[in-house]
Amino acid sequence: MTIGLVLNAAQARLKSAGVDTPRLDAILLLAEASAMSEDHIRSRPEAPLTPEAGTAFEAMLQRRLRREPVSKIIGRREFWSLEFRTSPDVLDPRADSETLAAGVLAAIPDRAASLRIVDFGTGSGCLLLSLLHELPNATGVGIDVSPPALAIAQDNADRLGMSSRCIFRLGSWGRGIEGTFDILMSNPPYIESGGVPGLEPEVADYDPLLALDGGADGLDAYRALLPDMARLAVKNALAALEVGMGQDVAVSHLLAGAGFGQIAVLPDLSGIGRVVTGRKSVQIP
């Protein structure tokens, strides 16, 4: 059996299963199963595939046919041009969240400054570690309520050589956290509870519910988090929150009510208001 024949058959099966990118997914899985590069697979359709690689590929393909994400199958995903380990215990890093990283970086006049960053609900650590990658003198704290998620984040920090500049702590939002921070950010759960079952299977069935369900109106996490963000923010600290479609106005009001000014909404690549930012301006009793 040749690479081309195997890919064509896999593409057809994935398309029938409702996968949006069947050809790309088949290539990524075949590269993982065969230890061949993606370029080799694309350029050598006539090359033979070993029986061992074919068996491994079929096992991965069966998982993808059940709509398990490729990143969960191969155990890693790229974010901000860095490779992160992922697992069923963490929300899959997504391109939409790069809007938050880009927005924070755009608001920093001096990237060499010794900034303190806190990431609430850090998950895989992709946001915190991406910022540390761009800010060489910054340090960070990642907080999550899930011990398995914290283990993934710590492993990612180790693999990226950043473990000396960050710590990961078990906790619920900012409860029990002391000190102050220059940058406070979060990609909290913001899907309305009733909307979770209707999400794509890759999300609803394979991302942790704890990272998705934002309560009846999707805003529970923001209400719980913002008092801690205000308490831990230095004057003029930057707050950055990822939000769901149509939530930017409500979260902007919540952020303002917590003592943050200069509120701005940043669009993602689709033009949807994806991130709300603000600067700590007043002390709320």
From TrEMBL:
Substrate binds at N187, P188, P189, Y190. The keyword Transferase applies. S-adenosyl-L-methionine binds at G121, T122, G123, S124, G125, D144, W173, N187. InterPro entries: HemK-like, Methyltranfer_dom, N5-glutamine_MTase, PrmC_N, RF_methyltr_PrmC, SAM-dependent_MTases_sf. It holds the Pfam family Methyltransf_31. Keywords: Methyltransferase, S-adenosyl-L-methionine, Transferase. Residues 7-75 form the Release factor glutamine methyltransferase N-terminal domain. It comes from the Bacteria. Its EC number is 2.1.1.297. GO terms for molecular function: peptide chain release factor N(5)-glutamine methyltransferase activity. GO terms for biological process: methylation. The keyword Transferase applies. Residues 114-187 form the Methyltransferase domain. It catalyses: L-glutaminyl-[peptide chain release factor] + S-adenosyl-L-methionine = N(5)-methyl-L-glutaminyl-[peptide chain release factor] + S-adenosyl-L-homocysteine + H(+). Gene3D superfamilies: DNA helicase RuvA subunit, C-terminal domain, Vaccinia Virus protein VP39. Methylates the class 1 translation termination release factors RF1/PrfA and RF2/PrfB on the glutamine residue of the universally conserved GGQ motif. HAMAP family: RF_methyltr_PrmC. Belongs to the protein N5-glutamine methyltransferase family. PrmC subfamily. This is Release factor glutamine methyltransferase. The lineage of its organism: Bacteria, Pseudomonadati, Pseudomonadota, Alphaproteobacteria, Rhodospirillales.
